[in-house]
Amino acid sequence: MSVVKLQNLSFRYLRRKNPALKNISLSIEKGTTVAIMGPAGAGKSTLVKALIGVVPHIDPGHLDGDVIVDGLNTRDHSVPDMARHVSLVLENPDVQIFSLTVKDDVAFGPANLGMPPDEIWARVAYAMQETQLVGLDDRNPNNLSGGEQQGLAIAGALAMKPHVLAMDEPVAMIDPVGKDRVMSIVERITKGDTQTTTIITESGTDIEALAGKVDQVVALHQGEVVLDGPAREALADPMLEEIGVGHPQVTDLFLKLQDAGVKSTYIPINLDDAVEMLSRLLAEVGVNQIALPPDYGGLTERNFGKPIVRVQNLHHTYPPDVHALRGVDLTIHAGEIVGIIGQNGSGKTTMARHLVGLLKPSNRDAVVQVMGRNVTKVRFRQIIKMINYVFQNPDDQIFADTVWEEIAFAPEMMGFSEEETKQMVEEALETFNLKGYEKRYTMSLPEDLKTYLAIACVFPLKPEILVIDEPTTGLDMKGEKIMMHSLETLRDAGHTIVIITHNMKTVARHCDRVIVMGEGQILLEGTPRELFAQPGRLLEAKIRPPQITQLGQRLNDIGFPPNVLTVDEMTDVVLYNLRRNRG
Amino acid sequence: MTKMMVVASVVIMSGLWLDPRYQAVLFLLAFIPVYVSKIPLYWFSVVALAVVTSTYPVAVTSLGQTNVGLYKVLDPTWATTSVVGTDIPFVGKLGITYGGLMWLLNAELRSTIMATYMFVFIYTTSVAEVTDTLLALKVPQPAVFVISIAYKLIPSFSRVVEHILSAQRLRGWSLRHWNPVIIVRRAAPLMKPLMRRVAIMTEQITMTTQIRGFGSGKVTATRKLTFTKLDYALMAIAILATITAVVLTAFFNVGQL
Fold this sequence. Notes:
The complex is a heterodimer of chains A (583) and B (257).
Chain A: E1 2-13, E2 21-29, E3 33-37, H1 44-52, H2 54-57, E4 61-69, E5 72-73, H3 79-82, E6 86-89, H4 102-112, H5 117-130, H6 146-158, E7 164-167, H7 176-191, E8 197-202, H8 207-211, E9 216-221, E10 224-230, H9 231-234, H10 238-242, H11 249-259, H12 271-284, E11 307-318, E12 322-333, E13 337-342, H13 348-355, E14 367-370, E15 373-374, H14 380-386, E16 387-390, H15 403-413, H16 418-431, H17 447-458, E17 465-469, H18 477-492, E18 496-500, H19 504-510, E19 513-518, E20 521-526, H20 528-532, H21 535-540, H22 547-554, H23 567-582
Helix pairs in contact in A: 4-5, 4-6, 5-6, 6-7, 11-23, 15-16, 15-17
Chain B: H1 2-16, H2 20-37, H3 44-62, H4 76-79, E1 82-88, E2 92-97, H5 98-124, H6 127-136, H7 141-169, H8 180-186, H9 188-211, H10 229-252
Antiparallel strand pairs in B: 1-2
Helix pairs in contact in B: 1-5, 1-10, 2-5, 3-5, 6-7, 7-9
């Protein structure tokens, strides 16, 4: 039975020229999990907002066609009325949490629906059970981990007992273990007694987290449905690659093997299936023990310059008594790309803010040295020429009318001449792929270009070290490639890049060194190859290696290396062994 | 309810008084709730921003004030006497008066006091508690809805201000300049992203509250209001202090300049 029906749905936001959704017809069955996939700007968020009537009742625009959820046409019902049937969880849990305790927050929705108190608390108990929040009843939501906060947002939605639960990129902002937690909640509520239909949007970065849990995949591109089918077929469809979403890493591996002439009975979309299929493939040709290709892992070790950042015994306490950093010791070398990873709230951003002088250590004996100078004693305008920091949200800094003016702002503020400013802006445009956009109105830029612009804005100050918070968040596969290519170009030109990220694929592919933080301390550090080979220790920091690395680890008993970093590496290992045994 | 009454009392008194000496008492008392609530200091970046941005317009209207009719308590001659001044051809005498200085100091203290008490209240009270209290006070549902949205917005607003300030400082931005016209122009990198973020946040919070069913009809209060002896005592003090202040100000010019 269809619980969601979209009939020729088109939608154009007010004062926008192009429609966000074009003639979409879809049918979603009860008790299924559906992934709405597409690159940035494809119309995914608009689509899920249409399910509860946010579009057009709160976000106005011109809507054609019908959205029928649980038998109700969203045209005829307000958002609060639809909330009894369908709920929406957003990417950022912060805007969805309203109370000072977990249980009060879960109760907020049912209380708004005017339910009797007994029913409210019964629903709170049910929702907290489903989302594994039992025992956290009186905790302040601000003190929960990212995964737990998103779990709380889902609990708040579940307490409304919706038949349809829509989620807009629910795992984008949380750590790998948090992502698994959220997806296991989704699996439980969909397959459990309530048979809640869940609809999740995804731009590709976290496709592995969803792949094994969804039944149906709908791909959008420029507001149109370009793919709709069962997950097993759709996730291996070349269309996902074409529109910039990509495939799960294990699917990508088998597609690459297929291109190389290795046939498998089906293309796996999750880790368990991939382990089984790869074991079978190798056994069929008599490979019992894996041999490594001669050039395996040879290209990733790099030599770096002298230490450029030195941190010793750094403590930081936020009032009243939140110990965000507990004695951090850290060295960063010139010319490396360093990834800082860790659970939400592990101290990554706090540590990075000390490097640029935005925060001062809480202890007097702390050392924070950049390029041999103590940042606590250097004037801020000097610091930002040595090291700079780019915030995660470009909207925090963009203000000028045009891209050119935005980039020219920093050199103008620092007193550079008109000629020097012009030269600096040209260079930044070139480096960050913004050539041709100089005169574009900044607010009309798509999200990926806004992210490039945010970095380009500090680039003219020529900082030796650039710290970037979540540079790939909100970017699709293509956007991520462009971004990381730009950063690698900077690294190759001698700059040192520090990125704070939850994206383990980015870390594996692009970082020279990784620092793992947990509870305000540095738990582990090393090259991605060294680190990702220690899944047990990473798990303590709520981190999981990329899916392709996990595949090697699951097959470690037949000799697969535990430190495969990319799909290409794994493809080489598999092909080398298949060809060797086939002669 | 108790916190609401205490804050309302302080806001009324601070709003009534024009004499910075009276405001100073409320200002000093504000340190107690700030210390007890352990409110993060970065929240006060908004207070600083409000005080700095309001200084200029308040200063323009107050500093050179020479209207003797404005002063009911202070000696008008002293209040309108220039601390510093100069004669400008065709324009006349321009200067800063003692009364004007007190007026300005009062306005700045008032902004700081009101924002501080409001922030302590917001930091220690959830949306659900505010909603329950307003419902108990029989405030109409649409008003409760609007207050709840505004209420949720303020803590996020402080964080956004801090982020934007930091992001722009990292690009070499600074408000400091000798030329007031340039200072005003330099507010753009701060105000434009701020306005945009506030609009986005307002939209998001409006959306999320409605998604959680707010506005669908009668809301159930999840807690019953209960009062301790301390609550009764504080509420009584707040009411008494407010009435006394209003009477003394209206009939005896207490707290006026």
